[in-house]
Amino acid sequence: MNKFLRKLTIALLILGAALYGFLGWRSLHPSKAAVVPGELAAAVISPRRVPDLVAISQQDAQLRAALTQLTDAAGAGSCLDIERNGIDIVATRSTTPLIPASAAKLLTASSAIDVLGPDKTFVTEVKSKSPKNGVIEGPVYLIGGGDPLLFTQQYQKTLKDQIDEHTSIEQLADAVVAAGVKTIRGGVNADDRMFDGQRSVPSWEPAYIAQAQVGSIGALTVNQGIDVKPNGVRTVTTDPATQAASVFTGLLKQRGVQVALGPGFGATPGSADDLAKIESKPLSAIIKQMLTESDNTTAEILLKQIAR
User: How many angstroms separate the Cα of 37 from the Cα of each of 33, 41, 48, 78?
Assistant: First the structure.
């Protein structure tokens, strides 16, 4: 019986190859009666289509290899099923029932790239009156540009074994010092007007905040709006902009800048001059971090960027 099946299979393959060759020959030598003026005479199955078919097959093979490597690395807690025209390209544990995780982040990531572009960066600025002899009369304004990964080095160190794509707020403080600032007669005023004032989502589980699974949403957030205590306990602030101004004030003082007043909140006047700024990593790198670490806060802030 096995020999019969093998012979039958070989015969079908030979027949299929012959039919394919015949149809290809007919496509190159069409009969005049079969040609309708103004229409193409090429058959659906044609040797001229072979390069496209081979290219698609190679693309599927490359995709299959990459995704199989990904699911193998993820282990038994992952599953994947991708189809093209009803045919499986990749099917890894596709019938295994699993609790879904943050699949919505894939939609956020795709939308962000589509709307903003993979090279988009987010800029955090410092503006004030121009310093004279190292003195700024009045406050400086820390202006949020919606950078979700504006971190201090100390906070980054608490994110052990995670991808590091953060923007260093220390470098922004260094830039203020490099501009010759030695004394600020006012304080650091936070300006986060780029987004609205919504800091969380009403439908979130209370545990998300209690366990600091997600921080405060805002255009000006440092350390994702999370405060890490010396004992490692993480708490979410309800006012990320003021927290950012407080952190920045401390960094300036550490660098020898005298700041007369405490952190505040206020809109940047149109007459303010540029003092310093820092750019985030490109959006593609931020998204890599967001998806790899399942970063809820970054996803929420990127959603604000898309909406804006």
Answer: 10, 9, 21, 55
